[in-house]
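Structure request: Ras GTPase-activating-like protein IQGAP1, Hypolimnas bolina.
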Amino acid sequence: EMRLEKCELDKNLNESEIAASALYLNAIASVSEAVERGDETAVWNALNSRHIQLERLKPHCRRRYLSALVTALQVKAREQCECPLLTLEDIKDTIDMVNMKDDDNDE
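Returned structure:
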């Protein structure tokens, strides 16, 4: 993630940018850790971290988010992915999938 940010900025990261990246990465890792523990409240709190700024989180979908994130983490483990933790992209895709199913149920 930090390497990608460095490439996007086309310069070396300064101290404050590195600190911000560390907070961002820690927030994403907190989601994976909470999912591994199966802690619905911790997952919800981690998803709501201001450092990762996820949109469209629905409180009534908390349990479904946890279940879908557990499945996503299991798939990564089963497929022996290079990064065994959930990435921000994994998390966003999972949230979007749950929200789409929820929207379909509302219609």
